[in-house]
Amino acid sequence: MFIRNAMLPEGAPPSFERPIDLVHLARQTLGDRALEREVLDLFVIQTRSVLDQLQKTGDQRGRMELAHTLKGSARSVGPDRGKRRQLARSA
Question: What's the 3-state SS for the chain?
Answer without folding.
Answer: CCCCCCCCCCCCCCCCCCCCCHHHHHHHCCCCHHHHHHHHHHHHHHHHHHHHHHHHCCCHHHHHHHHHHHHHHHHHHCCCHHHHHHHHHHC
